[in-house]
Amino acid sequence: MTGRIRKKLLANLNLPPPAEADVVCPLCGRPIPETQRDEHHLVPRSKGGRETTPLHRICHRQIHALFTERELAEAYCTIDALIAHPELAKFVRWVRRKPDDFFERTRKSARLRNGR
Asked: What is the pTM of this model?
C-alpha cells in the first residue's frame, strides 16, 4: 500500500509517516532518496495492475528498458521474478555499488529497439 491511501491510514492510526531513510529499494537494497523515488506498478496499469512498490528511478527505468508491458504482466509481476532475470540481476549487481542518489541515462535493450 502506498500513496494517498497509506497516508490516510497512517493519519488515522496517529503514526508518524515513514522517514525518508526507511524506504529501501526492493531491487538493489539501497535507501531511496525522495528525489529518486518512483512508484512501479508490478502489473502495468494498461494490463489492469493497481499495486505499486517504490523503486529507485534508475532501477525503475531499467525494468522498462528490458521488458515489454506484456512480459511484465505475465512473467515479471513480482520483485523475485524481476531479480531472477539474468540481465536485471547483472544491472542490480552493478548499481548496488553506486551512491543512493546515483542516476544515469537508461537505454532500451536491443531486443526491444528491434521489436523482437
From this structure: 0.73
Contact 42, 52 (CB under 8 A): yes
Cα 3 to Cα 45: distance, rounded to the nearest angstrom: 16
Q: 10 Cβ partners below 8 Å, 6+ apart?
A: 16, 17
Question: 93: domain CATH number?
Answer: 1.10.30
Q: Render pLDDT for 69-102 as a digit per residue (tens, 0 to 9).
A: 999 999 999 999 999 999 999 999 999 998 888 8
| Structural domain boundaries, residue 17 | 4-113
- As for how many domains the chain has, the answer is 1
Calpha distance 16→115 (Å, rounded): 47
